[in-house]
Structures
1.
Amino acid sequence: MAHAIIRGLVRHTNRAPVVGAVVILERLVPVFNEERKEEDLSSVYLGHTLTNRYGEFCFAVSDRTSTYRVKIFDNSHGEGRNP
Protein backbone atom coordinates (compact mmCIF):
# COMPACT_ATOMS: atom_id res chain seq x y z
CA MET A 1 0.00 0.00 0.00
CA ALA A 2 1.39 3.40 -0.96
CA HIS A 3 1.41 6.18 1.60
CA ALA A 4 1.14 9.93 1.08
CA ILE A 5 1.99 13.05 3.07
CA ILE A 6 -0.31 16.03 3.60
CA ARG A 7 1.66 19.04 4.75
CA GLY A 8 1.23 22.76 4.84
CA LEU A 9 2.06 26.11 6.38
CA VAL A 10 -0.23 28.38 8.36
CA ARG A 11 0.51 32.08 8.23
CA HIS A 12 -1.10 35.29 9.48
CA THR A 13 -2.02 37.95 6.92
CA ASN A 14 1.31 39.66 7.67
CA ARG A 15 3.10 36.39 6.66
CA ALA A 16 4.21 35.58 10.25
CA PRO A 17 3.89 31.87 11.11
CA VAL A 18 0.96 30.78 13.27
CA VAL A 19 2.53 28.82 16.13
CA GLY A 20 0.43 26.24 18.00
CA ALA A 21 -2.62 26.31 15.71
CA VAL A 22 -4.78 23.19 15.93
CA VAL A 23 -4.91 21.34 12.60
CA ILE A 24 -7.56 18.63 12.13
CA LEU A 25 -7.52 16.05 9.34
CA GLU A 26 -10.78 14.49 8.10
CA ARG A 27 -11.48 12.03 5.29
CA LEU A 28 -14.54 12.84 3.18
CA VAL A 29 -16.82 9.86 2.62
CA PRO A 30 -19.74 9.83 0.14
CA VAL A 31 -23.12 8.92 1.70
CA PHE A 32 -26.58 8.80 0.15
CA ASN A 33 -29.00 11.40 1.56
CA GLU A 34 -32.48 9.79 1.61
CA GLU A 35 -34.33 13.10 2.10
CA ARG A 36 -32.81 14.81 -0.93
CA LYS A 37 -32.33 11.58 -2.91
CA GLU A 38 -28.77 12.52 -3.77
CA GLU A 39 -25.25 11.74 -2.70
CA ASP A 40 -23.72 13.90 0.00
CA LEU A 41 -20.38 13.98 1.82
CA SER A 42 -19.75 13.04 5.42
CA SER A 43 -16.45 13.46 7.23
CA VAL A 44 -14.50 11.01 9.37
CA TYR A 45 -12.06 12.40 11.94
CA LEU A 46 -8.55 10.98 11.41
CA GLY A 47 -6.40 12.99 13.79
CA HIS A 48 -5.01 16.34 14.83
CA THR A 49 -1.70 18.09 15.35
CA LEU A 50 -0.32 21.52 16.26
CA THR A 51 1.71 23.78 14.01
CA ASN A 52 5.39 24.13 14.91
CA ARG A 53 7.32 27.38 15.39
CA TYR A 54 7.48 27.81 11.61
CA GLY A 55 3.71 27.34 11.21
CA GLU A 56 4.17 23.92 9.58
CA PHE A 57 2.07 20.79 9.97
CA CYS A 58 2.25 17.29 8.48
CA PHE A 59 0.04 14.17 8.30
CA ALA A 60 0.91 10.75 6.90
CA VAL A 61 -2.08 9.06 5.23
CA SER A 62 -2.33 5.48 4.02
CA ASP A 63 -5.06 5.97 1.40
CA ARG A 64 -3.94 8.40 -1.27
CA THR A 65 -7.10 7.84 -3.34
CA SER A 66 -9.42 9.43 -0.74
CA THR A 67 -10.38 13.08 -0.48
CA TYR A 68 -9.33 14.86 2.70
CA ARG A 69 -10.31 18.07 4.47
CA VAL A 70 -7.95 20.07 6.68
CA LYS A 71 -9.42 22.40 9.32
CA ILE A 72 -7.26 24.95 11.11
CA PHE A 73 -8.03 26.77 14.34
CA ASP A 74 -5.75 29.54 15.66
CA ASN A 75 -6.03 29.57 19.46
CA SER A 76 -3.50 32.36 20.02
CA HIS A 77 -6.10 35.18 20.05
CA GLY A 78 -3.60 37.56 18.51
CA GLU A 79 -0.70 36.68 20.79
CA GLY A 80 2.67 36.87 19.10
CA ARG A 81 1.40 38.60 15.98
CA ASN A 82 3.58 41.23 14.40
CA PRO A 83 1.56 44.25 13.15
2.
Amino acid sequence: MALSPSEWQILKELAERTAAEDPDYVQRLATFGSHEPCEAAVPARGRVLVPAVAAGALVVLGFVVTAVAVAGLEAAGGRRRASSGRFRR
Protein backbone atom coordinates (compact mmCIF):
# COMPACT_ATOMS: atom_id res chain seq x y z
CA MET A 1 0.00 0.00 0.00
CA ALA A 2 1.52 3.31 -1.08
CA LEU A 3 1.64 6.40 1.08
CA SER A 4 -0.43 9.42 0.17
CA PRO A 5 1.31 12.73 -0.53
CA SER A 6 0.24 14.08 2.86
CA GLU A 7 1.69 10.99 4.58
CA TRP A 8 4.97 11.49 2.71
CA GLN A 9 5.01 15.10 3.88
CA ILE A 10 4.45 14.06 7.50
CA LEU A 11 7.20 11.46 7.21
CA LYS A 12 9.58 14.07 5.74
CA GLU A 13 8.81 16.51 8.57
CA LEU A 14 9.42 13.81 11.18
CA ALA A 15 12.78 12.99 9.58
CA GLU A 16 13.78 16.66 9.55
CA ARG A 17 12.80 17.13 13.22
CA THR A 18 14.67 13.98 14.22
CA ALA A 19 17.77 15.12 12.33
CA ALA A 20 17.65 18.49 14.08
CA GLU A 21 17.12 17.02 17.56
CA ASP A 22 19.52 14.07 17.44
CA PRO A 23 22.10 14.08 14.62
CA ASP A 24 23.98 11.10 16.14
CA TYR A 25 20.85 8.97 15.92
CA VAL A 26 20.36 9.97 12.28
CA GLN A 27 23.98 9.04 11.56
CA ARG A 28 23.51 5.60 13.14
CA LEU A 29 20.34 5.05 11.11
CA ALA A 30 22.14 6.09 7.92
CA THR A 31 24.71 3.34 8.40
CA PHE A 32 22.22 0.74 9.61
CA GLY A 33 22.01 -2.21 7.24
CA SER A 34 24.84 -0.98 5.02
CA HIS A 35 26.65 -4.31 5.38
CA GLU A 36 26.03 -7.79 6.70
CA PRO A 37 28.55 -8.43 9.51
CA CYS A 38 27.48 -12.04 9.93
CA GLU A 39 28.24 -12.73 6.25
CA ALA A 40 31.77 -11.37 6.66
CA ALA A 41 32.36 -13.08 10.00
CA VAL A 42 31.33 -16.60 8.95
CA PRO A 43 32.98 -18.11 5.88
CA ALA A 44 30.78 -19.85 3.29
CA ARG A 45 31.86 -23.30 4.45
CA GLY A 46 30.89 -22.45 8.03
CA ARG A 47 27.40 -21.39 6.98
CA VAL A 48 26.76 -24.94 5.80
CA LEU A 49 28.85 -26.83 8.34
CA VAL A 50 27.38 -25.33 11.51
CA PRO A 51 23.72 -26.24 10.76
CA ALA A 52 24.77 -29.71 9.59
CA VAL A 53 26.67 -30.36 12.83
CA ALA A 54 23.75 -29.02 14.88
CA ALA A 55 21.30 -31.29 13.06
CA GLY A 56 23.58 -34.28 13.59
CA ALA A 57 23.87 -33.49 17.29
CA LEU A 58 20.08 -33.37 17.59
CA VAL A 59 19.75 -36.76 15.89
CA VAL A 60 22.34 -38.29 18.23
CA LEU A 61 20.60 -36.72 21.23
CA GLY A 62 17.30 -38.24 20.08
CA PHE A 63 18.87 -41.70 19.87
CA VAL A 64 20.40 -41.34 23.35
CA VAL A 65 17.10 -40.23 24.89
CA THR A 66 15.29 -43.13 23.20
CA ALA A 67 17.91 -45.63 24.37
CA VAL A 68 17.69 -44.40 27.96
CA ALA A 69 13.89 -44.57 27.88
CA VAL A 70 13.91 -48.12 26.50
CA ALA A 71 16.52 -49.21 29.05
CA GLY A 72 14.38 -47.74 31.82
CA LEU A 73 11.33 -49.68 30.64
CA GLU A 74 13.28 -52.92 30.37
CA ALA A 75 14.69 -52.43 33.86
CA ALA A 76 11.15 -52.03 35.17
CA GLY A 77 10.16 -55.38 33.72
CA GLY A 78 8.81 -53.94 30.50
CA ARG A 79 5.66 -52.79 32.25
CA ARG A 80 4.35 -49.31 32.55
CA ARG A 81 2.88 -47.96 35.72
CA ALA A 82 -0.65 -49.04 36.41
CA SER A 83 -3.11 -46.43 35.31
CA SER A 84 -5.83 -45.17 37.58
CA GLY A 85 -8.48 -46.29 35.13
CA ARG A 86 -9.94 -42.81 34.79
CA PHE A 87 -9.85 -42.88 31.01
CA ARG A 88 -11.01 -46.42 30.39
CA ARG A 89 -14.17 -47.02 28.42
